Amino acid sequence: MPESIVVRMNGMPLTVPARCSVAAAISIADLTCRTSVTGEERGPLCAMGICFECRATVNGMEHTRTCQLLCEPAMDIRTS
Amino acid sequence: MMHEFETLVVGGGPAGIAAAVCAAEHGVRVGLIDDNPSAGGQIWRGSAKGTDNSHRDSATGWQHRLNNPRITQLQGWSVFEQASSGSLRAEHNSSSADLRFEKLILATGARERFLPFPGWTLPNVVGVGAIQAMVKAGLPVHGKRVVIAGSGPLLLAVAAFLKSAGAKVVCVCEQASASQLLPFAIGLVKTPGKIIEGVRYKAATLDVPFHTSAWPVEALGDRKLNAVILSVHGKTKTLHCDYLACGFHLVPNTELAALVGCELSNGAVVVDEWQQTSVSNIYCAGEPTGIGGVELSLTEGQIAGLVVAGQKEKAHTLFGQRKQFTRFAAGLAQAFALRSELKALPTETTLICRCEDVAYGAVRQHHSWRAAKLHTRCGMGPCQGRICGTATEYLLGWNAGSVRPPIFPALVSGLASHPEPEFQKTEGD
Amino acid sequence: MNNRYDALVVGAGIVGAACALELSSAGLQVAVVERDSVGSGATAAGMGHVVVMDDSEAQFALTSYSQSLWNALSPELPLSVEYQRTGTIWVAADEEEMAEVERKFEYYTARGIPVEILDSQGVAEAEPNLRLPLAGGLRVLSDAVLYPPCAAGYLLEMAKIQKPGVALILGRSAIQIGEGRVVLDDGTTLLSPLIVNATGSFAPELTPGVAVKKRKGHLIITDRYPGFVRHQLVELGYLKSAHSSTTDSVAFNVQPRSTGQLLIGSSRQFDAEDSGVDREIVTAMVERAALYLPGIARLSALRVWSGFRAATPDKLPLIGPTEDPSIFLATGHEGLGITTSLATARLLVDQLLQRTSEIPVEPYLPSRLTGESTVPLRVKEMFHA
Question: Is residue C302 within 8 Å of residue C264, measured between CB atoms?
């Protein structure tokens, strides 16, 4: 089991610990997950899949919750 | 795709784990479904390797017993619909499956109650249980300044955890007054195990200021949080911080229970002494029957697991323990009751609905949750009112109304039922 | 609370709201009684399209007249009403449906509705997410979509600022209407010579025997995917579905909301009185939608709900007097309530004021179904008393 893996964060490679959530990876990259409907930057609130503030586009799927999703090698993550 | 079990347990936290283990150890073929990557729920996240000393021994024991050949764990699954009276529909990795059962145990846990205040939508304003979960999921907090606020025993527990993770816990702000808490502290004498827990937490957080009658008034920052204004015994003070972890107790996750027809009362699932709901083959254990903490959840889970396995005598031996923990939980609720000053925290422009960016001023012009939803869009987002509905229930006394499927957003394709799919009966070995 | 009014509207859905505005604009003191909140019935449940339909001359006349009224009103509608002239594309899957496209083109062109025929390539360019190949389609440029509860709210706000204004009585049910009286569930009696039953599919509860039946529908709404669909899209089989009086049916109908969400419909059922979501119907709707828009299956669905349209035997609404000289009907709009609400109000008040209507009113009179004679003279007398 590797100590760390590499994901693609907004097109750039990012090294994160193995078994790290996608939301944590976004924080490690000093980004926020999404922009709200009136343009505010937002990050996770509840960390349990309920608030939907942690949504990002993962492997092409929009509106994916990232707080309970583990990073995988070469995963494509795009924040908005 | 379909899976079939004798008993399906929904929720892999302490109650669900205890239920699954007890049922399986008495011969029942169990499916345990949970939306996290691993079992443990919120409180036992990563506990097998984690730094949460007080729970580690108990959690490890239960996690070990989960390795039972009669238990099939389905992690990363989200239940969104009832396919028929004997099956639920769940989504996993963009595909959905039906889960058939003879008996169902609902152990869907609880969520934090978030009360809005100016600036609460800034990135790095998070929940209390949330920050613990985030750190366990890889959020780096070493050297970061954290203010913890809100209400409940969770505040001190998380303060201890954050300290052990290397964070600088600036202070802990409990909204209840010291006089409100005193009877609770005295009441701890009746529950010895709790004293030890309390002492451990207190010891760990000895050099962290703990304020009562304290709550956040405003979160400040440009693109993310950098400071919080607190009201402490009526005086305001501003503290610089990297994170504000703020949550006001827990509310039961009752949506699935309501969906499958279980009777609710006062926001909790009604169960009899055998943890059976108003639907004869459906049981409920843990926080959805009423917020009560880990030990009560474990006890209720064990009772439910034993009952579905036909072990009512064994289940009965746990009744005394359950009564004791229930009494503790009642004392807890009373001690940490929310003060009315919290209703005055949001201003007209404070957002209530974060999914649709709806301000409090717009929402409270209406006379009911439904009217507000239809006319302001509050509650129309993907959280389906779990955040804003819980807040308006406290702020305005609104009832958020009945539950409809899907109880979580699901792919459009998942809404279509499929006739006779590939049938997969999961065998014991 | 005053208990005498010049006019009393029961039901604050889009039709009741439109009637309140028209009555108030004519100088009447109006009260509206609503048991829940503004626009919370079929108005909240439906799709909010403002469309022309050619099922019959009378249906065309009413929809096109009303659409022109919405068009004239649109510049002043607030953003919350989400009025958008998206246009509709009637999608043709094969040559048989293309022939229907051509017939509609002739029909609408002859009556001044801006339409254009799209061939296979044209429809693909207009809507890239439609499956290929399709035979083509008909684009109706004047069609629009809006968000009905806020539209009803706006009409009532406008009614309130007319002189002498509107009293809105929310959270009270009318339990009996007749002979110039409306009795509420709290025992209050309101008096008016002019009571409008605008309670949609519940109209027979207050006016026994009125020829309105519940016709259940389902909708799904997705998360935000701006640009996935630009026009309202309808399959040509939609009319067959709306046309049938007896069978349950599903027809492809997808609408883009200004939020970027997609509304997926449509379904029609008779003899389904419960408001629960019917999984078989939803399955059929999803499969039909995925047939035309394959990518829709992978979008996130936030909610599914059902509602009741008010259906009449001849698919035309009931606008006008009943046997009781104080009771008037404004109901039975089936799937065209949003579209025809403004014209309904206009035609109703035309009758009361004995103004000449823009279109003939006879096809919509309740008496066409009961055989009774038309507007009793007493109405005008009462009105001017």
Answer: no
What integer pLDDT is reported at residue C246 of this predicted model?
66
> How many CB pairs lie under 8 A apart between chains A and B?
106
The alpha-carbon gap from C172 to the nearest alpha carbon of chain B, in Å, equals 13
What is the C-alpha separation between B124 and B142, in angstroms, rounded? Answer: 15
Q: Mean per-residue pLDDT for C344-356? A: 94
- In chain B, the N- to C-terminal Cα span, in Å, equals 20
Q: Residue B332: what pLDDT?
A: 82
Sheet of A12-17: strand order equals A12-17, A4-9, A76-78, A56-58, A61-64
Average pLDDT in the B84-104 region?
95
Helix (H) or strand (E) holding C122: helix C120-126
Mean pLDDT along residues A9-20: 96
Cite the residue boundaries of each domain of chain B with CATH code 3.50.50.60: 2-111+251-332, 114-248
Is B413 close to C286, i.e. CB distance below 8 A? yes
Domain ranges of chain A: 4-78
Pairing of strands C261-268, C213-224: antiparallel
List the CATH code of the domain at B114-248. Answer: 3.50.50.60
CATH class of the A4-78 domain in this structure: alpha beta
Distances (CA, A) of C143 to B132, C117, C179, C267: 52, 15, 40, 21
Amino acid at A76: D
The interface pTM score, or ipTM, of the predicted complex is 0.97
How many Cβ atoms are within 10 Å of C314's Cβ, its own excluded? 17
> For C312-322, what is the mean pLDDT?
96
pLDDT tier, B190 (very low <50, low <70, confident <90, very high otherwise): low
Would you call A48 and B133 a contact, using CB atoms and an 8 Å cutoff? Answer: yes
pLDDT of residue B266: 93
Q: Which residue of A has its CA nearest to B122?
A: A42
Question: What local confidence, expressed as pLDDT, does residue C241 receive?
Answer: 64
Decide if pLDDT at B191 tops 70.
no
CATH 3.40.630.30 fits B2-111+251-332, yes or no: no
Please answer whether residues B353 and A52 qualify as being in contact, where contact means their C-beta atoms are separated by less than 8 angstroms.
Answer: no
The DSSP element (H or E) to which B258 belongs, if any, is helix B255-259
Report whether A48 contacts A68 (CB < 8 A).
Answer: yes
Q: Which of C300, C302, C303 to mutate to test the interface with A (most CBs of A within 10 A)?
A: C300
Nearest by CB to residue A16, choosing from B138, B382, B387, is: B138
Across the interface, which of A32, A37, A49 has its CB nearest the CB of B123? A32
For C284-351, the DSSP string reads HHHHHHHHH-GGGGGSEEEEEEEEEEEE-TTS--EEEE-SSTTEEEEE--GGGHHHHHHHHHHHHHHH
Touching check for A37 and chain C: CB below 8 Å? yes
Q: Computed from CA positions of residues C323, C327, C332, C336, in that sequence, does the dihedral angle turn out positive or negative?
A: positive
pLDDT band for B182, please (50, 70, 90 cuts). confident
Over the stretch C242-259, which tens digit does the pLDDT of each residue have? 666 667 889 999 999 999
Secondary structure (3-state) at C108: helix
Lowest mean pLDDT among B263-267, B316-320, C340-344, C378-382: C378-382
Give the H or E element holding residue B261: none
Give the minimum alpha-carbon distance from A21 to chain B in angstroms, rounded to a whole number. Answer: 5
Average pLDDT over residues C157-182: 94
Q: Name chain C's partners: 3 or more CB pairs within 8 A.
A: A, B
pTM of structure: 0.93
Inter-chain contact C37–B412, Cβ cutoff 8 Å? Answer: no
Identify the CA nearest to C316 among candidates C63, C19, C143: C63
Across the strands, what pairs with C307?
C217
Structure confidence by residue, pLDDT tens digits, A31-57: 999 999 999 999 999 999 999 999 999
Closest CA of chain B from C46, distance in Å: 12
- pLDDT recorded at residue B41: 86
